Each structure stands twice: as C-alpha cells, then as structure tokens.
TrEMBL record:
Belongs to the calycin superfamily. Fatty-acid binding protein (FABP) family. GO terms for molecular function: lipid binding. This is RET5 protein. Monomer. It comes from Caloenas nicobarica. Signal peptide: none annotated. The gene is Rbp5. InterPro entries: Calycin, Fatty_acid-bd, ILBP.
C-alpha cells in the first residue's frame, strides 16, 4: 500500500535547479529568481485524489488530480506550456509523467522518514529538492 503523503513540508535544499530551468527554456533573470526561492509543499492525499500546493513568496502552483487519470496540465505559470499529465504510484514513489514539447519531463515524490524528496526531470537534466515535514 502506498504511503499517505498528506502534510505540510518546509524547503530544506535543492540541487541543479538552474540547469533544470535552462532545459525548460526559462530566461536567465527568471532562473536566478526561482533559484533564490525556498518553496514549501502542502499535500492533501485522500484515496485516489491528491492536491499538491507548491507555495512561494512569488506565487503558488496547485496540482489537483486523480491518480492514474490523464489530464491537461497548464504549466503557464512555470514555462508557458501545456502537457498531458498522469500521476500514479510506482511502489512507494508518486510518479508524474508530463507529455508535451519537452522530452523526459516529469517528477517523482517519495518519503524518507520525515523528509519528502522531489526529483524533477526534463530532457537530460535532473533537479532534486528535499523538504522536512512540519505537520
């Protein structure tokens, strides 16, 4: 049975964000700004329905979806694109596949103790973020 990810998580660290954003064709000014942000995550996980809020001082991004059901995701706030997104479980990891203009785009979340890990990929770039559960 997959873990329940419900909780509020505070940003701890990230690696390779600038190269990840460059692969998404984000301009240098916005890349520098995003690399300074320390996002929090709030996850509400109820059965096969999830809401994942990424919270920053600049803007929030909300994903509201049913597991295993493809939907059109508007990534306008991120990079101006839309893609066909499916989120499902692979063992203990929540895996997102984002089909669209960019190859190999998606992410995966998993828990290690009280820490939430996020591995984001696009093209050949990988960014890893870690968050600490606070409630």
């Amino acid at each position: 049975m997959p873990p329940n990810l419900t909780g509020y998580y505070r940003f701890v660290s990230q690696e390779n964000m600038d190269n990840y954003l460059r692969a998404l064709d984000i301009n240098v000014v916005l890349r520098k700004l995003v690399c300074l942000l320390k996002p929090d995550k709030e996850i509400i996980h109820t059965g096969d329905h999830m809401v994942i809020r990424t919270i920053t001082s600049l803007r929030d991004y909300v994903m509201d979806f049913d597991l295993g059901v493809q939907f059109e995701e508007d990534l306008g706030p991120v990079d101006g694109r839309k893609c066909q997104t499916t989120v499902s479980w692979e063992g203990d990891q929540l895996v997102c596949e984002q089909l669209g203009e960019k190859r190999n785009r998606g992410w995966r979340h998993w828990l290690e103790g009280d820490q939430l890990h996020l591995r984001m990929t696009v093209e050949d770039e990988v960014c890893v973020q870690v968050f600490q559960k606070v409630k």
